[in-house]
Structure formats: C-alpha cells, structure tokens
Amino acid sequence: MMHADFQHFQRSFGHHLRDPHHAPRPAGVSSRGCAVYQELVFNNLCGFLDACFPVSRQLLGEVRWRRLNRTFLRDWPQHSPWFRDIPQAFTRYLAEGTIAQPLPRWLADLAHYEWTELVVDTLDCTAPPAASEGDLMQRPVRVNPAMRLVRYDWPVHLIGEDYRPRRPQPTTLAVYRGRDLTIRFTELNPLTLRLLTCLRQPGMTGQRAVEQLAAESDYPAAQLLAHAPPLLDALRDQEILLGVQP
C-alpha cells in the first residue's frame, strides 16, 4: 500500500471508529474486526472520562452520560496524541461544542472543576523553601504553587446528589494540594482573590500586596491593613500560603 493510500485508509478507519453509523467501513476490513476496535476505543475513552468526572457521571445518569461520551468521541476533534489530554478536551466540548441532548446548565462548570482537581493533583511542581513561622506582612510570602484559582457561574463545589442549583451563583475557588497531598478547595471573595494574585509576584510581602490592592480599589488602605494579618494567617493555616521566605 502506497503512503497516500495508507493515510487515506487511516483517516477512513478513524472516521468509522468514531461514527460507525454514518462513516462507511473501509474496504477490506471485516465488520467483526471493526466492532472489536470500536469497543476498545470507546471503552478506553470512557475509562479516562469516568475517572476524571465521577460527580458529573453520577448526576447525569449512566444512559445520558454514555450518550454524551459517544457524541464527544464522534463530534469533537482530538489533536493531542496523549490520553491525559482527553479530560481537558471534554471540558472544552461541554463549553464550546454543539450538543444536541439537553444538559444541566451547570454541567460544563462542574466538569471543569472536576478536571481542575485532576490538574492540581498531577501538577509537577516543587514547593519553594518556606518558613512556617514568620511575619507574613513584613517578609516575602511563599504561595502554594500547586494551586489553581478558578471562577465559575455556578457553585460547583456544592453541587451533588442533594443539591442541583437552579440559578447561577458566581463562585471563585482556590483549588490546591496540601502537604499531605490531598486536594482541597476554599471559596474566595474578590478581594482575597486579588490579594493572592498580588502575592504571587516574586518577593511580595503581605503589606506591599495590601497596599497595591488598596491602590486598585475603593477600600481605605488602613482598613485593609487592619484586616490583612488574620486573613493571611488563615490562608497559611489552610496551606494556601506556605509561609515566608527563609
């Protein structure tokens, strides 16, 4: 088989595996052989989706979940050869794809939240040296690098079997990995989110971050400086902040 012919066969075979009801089976391939490959491809895909999105799967129900898995395989282009990129592609499909079946409005946000937990769990990063004791206002602060700050239209951290929101509720979360390697989350208000963003700048002290925050907002600097020490201590207790630069 010539090179061009082989590429054509690969594309045809791939189209058939993803959409066997509409893409014809390539000539020379048995229906039994195709069925085996179809099952392998779909089951492998489902394995990665099931592992990353257990809550979404549970709340949607098995039948609707599998139907969604199939339309994702059929309709959404996969550009990465890495299996680990499948969950991220699925979140994009939910957010951007044209999906015929009716889905809960919060599903895309919930799935992204579940994927973010996986991302944080597998982040390859080393925590910088940090002294757990020290003045967070006066010394450079060490922020936990195994963390993602995310915003959603829905309270994704509350969604479950006993709670399915009917109206949007803007929510900001810090999703991070603790020293014991567990994945945790904390809900943030806009000021705390901005404070953490400032603290991520190299060499930033708590006081400098608060002063920068005051300059950007309508809050009096004195008021923010008074409330900052207990807030920073609480963030350190939660391991969102690791401490201060030694």
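(the above was protein one; protein two follows)
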Amino acid sequence: MKIASWNVNSLNVRLPHLEQWLQAAQPDVVGLQETKLEDNRFPDAVLAGLGYRSVFAGQKTYNGVALLARGHALDDVTIGIPGFDDAQRRAIAATVNGIRIVNLYVVNGQDVGTEKYDYKLRWLDAVHGWIADELSRHPQLVVMGDFNIAPDDRDVHDPAVWNDASILTSTAERAALQRLLNLGLHDAYRLHHSEGGFFSWWDYRQAGFRRNLGLRIDLTLVSDALRGKTVAADIDREPRTWDRPSDHAPAWVEIA
C-alpha cells in the first residue's frame, strides 16, 4: 500500500492538481489537509470517477481534512479527536485494508506564547491520548498529516532562523511530537533517509521553493508493527513545480 499525505491548501483551487497527481502517482490511500470546503461542496463524485472512495470533514474557508482510498472501503470512520471539544475540522481516521489511518492537520500556533500556541499544545496533548488508545486497538497504525512541526535541524533550511524559540520548531512543539513517537511510532521518511535539506513546505514568498528555503513538516508515522514492512518513504516535489501550486508537496510511505 502506498499511503500519502498532502496539504492541498484549498481543494477548490487545487482539484485539477489532485486529479493529475492521483493518476500519475497511483497512491492507495491519501490524507488531505486544508481542503477549505464545506462537506456539501466536497468533490467526492469526481474522485469516485478516478476510483477513490472518500470520507471528509470540512468547513468554509478554513481547515478541512479528508481520506481517500482506492480499491478498499474506509471503515470505522472517526471525525475529530474523541473527547476533545473542538469546532475546527482537523482530524479524521479510518481503517483501510486492515491498517488504521489517522490524518491530522495540526494547529499552526501563530507565534510562541500566543493563545493559538497554547491551543496547539492542548490539541497535541489530546492527540497523544487518542493515538495511545488507537495503538492499543490497532497495532497496524499510520499517523500522517501536516504536523506544523519540523522534527529536528535537518528538517529546516536554516536552524539559526528556525530555532528553539520559533514557531514550528520550538522546544515544546518538538517535545510534543517526540511524545507521540515515544508511543511506538516512527518517522517513515527517516527510516530511509538520514540526510537533511529535503523539505515538504516552502513559503510562497522570497522565491522560497526555487531557493529551497523550506521545512519538512508533512510526516508519515508508522507503528512498530509496520516498521519492518515500510519499504520506501519520500516527498514528491513535482506538484510544487506546477502552476498555482499548494505550498506543500505530498509525503508518502509504501508498506509491503
């Protein structure tokens, strides 16, 4: 199974890109973030025409997540973090062909010390409890999405800029991500690539993509039970070169 995560930054704008990429890359499961669509506007019929079933949770203008699956049903769907009162559509999960898939659009946090930053840390704490429960029931688990956290200095273009006091790289954010990993999850990309300088997000400003001024914040995490079955993982930069692209590129993992 090839499982991918992509922050499309408005599915209304990027639907042609998604269609093109699905036909070229042929992933089996895709988690989308920042769809920015109310549910009645989600293009499930278009995606069905490409062979993908869809489950989704959206809202107007902001956030929004979805899971797509090709050739398999999406079972036992969960929308939102159980027990966490949150109006923002940022989490969705389903079981596909025996693998539990959790798709997250993690809070950005704005700036360290702000209310949005505190919300991000509370949200991540709630995710930790949820994932611990999911792992107890589903040993074969993939947690993926736009984490809005760069795991370490290899994952930023300039550690002097993206440091312990910066949003997306602050000490507390990285510690929250490490707590998730400590449950028994593994960064699939790092199972196959140890080098730095490879990113999944580039700012639209200052020719960020052309100059490779990026961050690796789109992650695919696999459980202990899937670690040995993870045969490849990478980032597909190609869609970032297209006209009017999302600022994120798809991150994917392949499981035997």
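Reviewer note on protein two: The CA atoms of residues 22 and 50 lie 8 Å apart.
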